[in-house]
Amino acid sequence: MELHERDERRAAAEAVLDDLASAGVVGVVLPWVDTSGITRMKSVPLARLPSAAQWGAGMSPVFDGFLVDDSIVAGTHAGSAIGDLRLHPDLSGLRVLAAQDGWAWAPVDRYTQDGAPHVQCSRSLLRRLVGELAEEGLSVRAAIEVEWALGEGAGPAGSDPRTFRPALAGPAYGMTRHIEVSDYARDLLEALDAQGVAVDQFHPEYAAGQLEVSVGAQDPVAAADTSLLVRTTIQAVSIAHGLRASFSPKVTADGVGNGGHVHLSLWRGTENLMNGGPGTFGLTEDGEGFTAGLLAHLPALLAVGCPSVASYLRLVPSHWAGAYAVWGLENREAAVRFVTGPSGNRQAAANVEVKCVDGAANPYLLLAGLLAAGQAGLRAGCVLPDPVAIDPGTLTEEGRREAGIVALPTSLEEAVTAFERDDVLLTAFGPEVATTIAEVRRGEITLFEGTSPEELTAAVRWRY
Ligand code: GLU
Ligand code: MG
């Protein structure tokens, strides 16, 4: 970052101070997501925003090595208590938080003190990969669905965090559940709207106390920012209602978990390459290559998209989580679900939904990995296998073998091993990020060794 850029950043912050003050803003939250998938933050009083924009707010690089329980891995490139990084708010993402009175929020990029992007800044990494696609005349539109379970009595103090008491009793997708949650959901939709989040849908999901919000597609960096903002808002509205939201992949040992499905479409200019081509379901050649790349790299991508030991309690067959490395049209048991959209609107709507990934994922790392995998498939002109139109879990093992259907990794260890062998992802992430991902995952594997599903789900329930 050159000195003149620092000056421009300061001037941009100074220009918004009056508006923020009139909106009652007292402080600005500077959030980012660590390797384990936890959103960490610092904040500055409003008057310090210009200084934070220009010089950044200090935060140690030690957090790259943090695990889900706040213990720290002694990593090759992370986990040291020495040094300092600067959090620079990206003011294009600045929002007044509607559910946290007096606060604004701006996503940050992490820089060194010398003004170079921090090599492990996942937001900068994603922006770099978006730029690489742009050099080939391509862009991606992305959206991350947010599922969460709403719990009672799980506040920070006083209650027993080991029990989960769903805040809602009504049936899955049920009107009764919606009525129970009516005021809460109104406050949530109002807050998201005030923050400029384009909500597509809200509904009660399948699991106990589970709800879902989906949002419109955006540029990948903005989509990851939105996912952070949506989750922050959901937690703030939940706490204001005396409740608590869990985005953990598996909130209780039994039942269905929380997914964090990612919708992606690939574009050349104004042309959606997921539609209008000669391929299956209207895929263009490039759209097929991109989708085939996603599918081929899924086992390794799970180290990023299903980053918790608990992720593998969720990623099981016949739970709509997409536990098999297959693709299919509107198949909710396929890891990659192809969505054409209604006829007449396909040029705008066609996309692929990566279903296997969950709410513990760092959205910047995950989108970076998906872009790298898709781009590799496109460059190599990969072709897709036949789509799958059944739930592979209903076949016998032999039936799956005959159909060439393979399960995704069933443990974090298996996913990390696949990741360490995946040259495309290792190259895209670079040695520092890739090594840290593997070390943090192995740290969590050790942390939860021998833990029962009940203990594991309780341990991570209120962390994500
Ligand atoms: N909750 C499911 C999951 O674990 C997904 C349900 C759905 O298809 O929306 O991903
Ligand atoms: Mg859902």
Automatic annotation (TrEMBL):
Keywords of this entry: ATP-binding, Ligase, Nucleotide-binding
GO biological process entries: glutamine biosynthetic process
Lineage: Bacteria, Bacillati, Actinomycetota, Actinomycetes, Geodermatophilales
GO function terms (MF aspect): ATP binding; glutamine synthetase activity
All copies of domain GS catalytic, residue ranges: 122-464
GS beta-grasp domain span: 23-115
Name of the protein: Glutamine synthetase
Similarity remark: Belongs to the glutamine synthetase family.
SMART domains found in the cross-reference section: Gln-synt_C (SM01230)
